[in-house]
Amino acid sequence: MERSLVLIKPDAMQRGLAGEIIFRIERRGLKIVAMKMLQMDKALAQRHYSVHKDKAFFDHLVDFITSSPVIAIVFQGKNTVEVIRQTMGETDPTKARPGTIRGDFGIDIGYNLVHGSDSLQNASKEIDLFFSKGEISDYDREIGKWIS
Ligand code: DAT
Ligand code: MG
């Protein structure tokens, strides 16, 4: 079983799309094992996006992600990283396919609604940035056997 970190970004929070995004990911069969709303500070934003620190858009990205509360969620299940990336769609919403979150609700790369870890290794690092071990609940669901 894999785990991945999802962030409902400030634009999605402001637009009232948190439920829609969680709904789309959850109904694919992935299980929520941790969730919290928080206001990211600059230090957390810089660590979360550290791979992009040399990019031209980095400062804007940090300002954006700290501009409103976000919801951080750990999803768990089979192929979780890939399934979430597929459900989100391409980074640039104008290239994301219809039927994906970004393809259905976005129009600008700077306002693409949702974050999902891009690899198992980064998922593990990102989850540790947002959650302590005690905040993650690994529980069984009866429905699990009908999903994978
Ligand atoms: P993703 O969020 O799909 O993993 P990423 O890790 O490459 O994409 O970039 C992180 C975020 O930075 C992305 O969600 C939106 C922003 N971003 C990426 N490329 C950008 C660009 N060329 N101009 C402005 N913002 C960009
Ligand atoms: Mg990324």
Structure description:
This protein has 148 residues and is α+β, with helices and mostly antiparallel strands. The chain is 37% helix and 18% strand. It contains 7 helices and 4 strands, in the order βααβααβααβα. Strands 2-3-1-4 form a 4-stranded antiparallel β-sheet. The model has no long low-confidence stretch (mean pLDDT 98). The structure holds 2'-deoxyadenosine-5'-diphosphate and magnesium ion.
- The CATH topology name reads Alpha-Beta Plaits
Q: Tell me the number of strands.
A: 4
β content, as a range? Answer: 15-25%
CATH superfamily: Nucleoside diphosphate kinase-like domain
Q: What form results from the Cα inertia axes?
A: globular
CATH class: Alpha Beta
Using only C-alpha atoms, the radius of gyration works out to 15 Å
Order of helices and strands: EHHEHHEHHEH
Helical proportion, percent range? 25-40%
Q: What does the main sheet amount to?
A: 4 strands, antiparallel
End-to-end C-alpha gap: 10 Å
Query: How many distinct helices?
Result: 7
Mean pLDDT figure: 98
Ions, cofactors, ligands: which are bound? 2'-deoxyadenosine-5'-diphosphate, magnesium ion
Q: Which CATH architecture is right? A: 2-Layer Sandwich
Q: What are the low-pLDDT stretches, counting only 5+ consecutive residues below 50?
A: none
- Strand sequence of the main sheet, in spatial order? 2-3-1-4
Count of spatially separate domains: 1
Q: Helices and strands: which structural class?
A: alpha+beta
